[in-house]
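Here is an idea for our session: we take a single protein and study its fold together. To get us started, please write out a protein record for me. Start from the sequence, derive the backbone structure tokens from it, and show both lines together. Go ahead whenever you are ready, and we will take it from there:
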Amino acid sequence: MDGLSEFLNMGGYAPFVWPSFGATVAIMAVLLVVSLRTLKRNQAALDALKDRENGADEA
């Protein structure tokens, strides 16, 4: 257990290292959510354009 404690302490740099990891994970999560929402919005727009194009072909 002492080795784990030493690892988590990061040689005294834990107050700098762990918040950096936390910020990185948070930023990556936000980027994932934004990217997925944008993908969904763009896919809906593409589907609407395809439907409009198919409608024009039938008329």
Summary: The two ends are 74 Å apart (CA to CA). Residues 39 and 48 are 14 Å apart (CA to CA). Residues 22-59 form one domain.
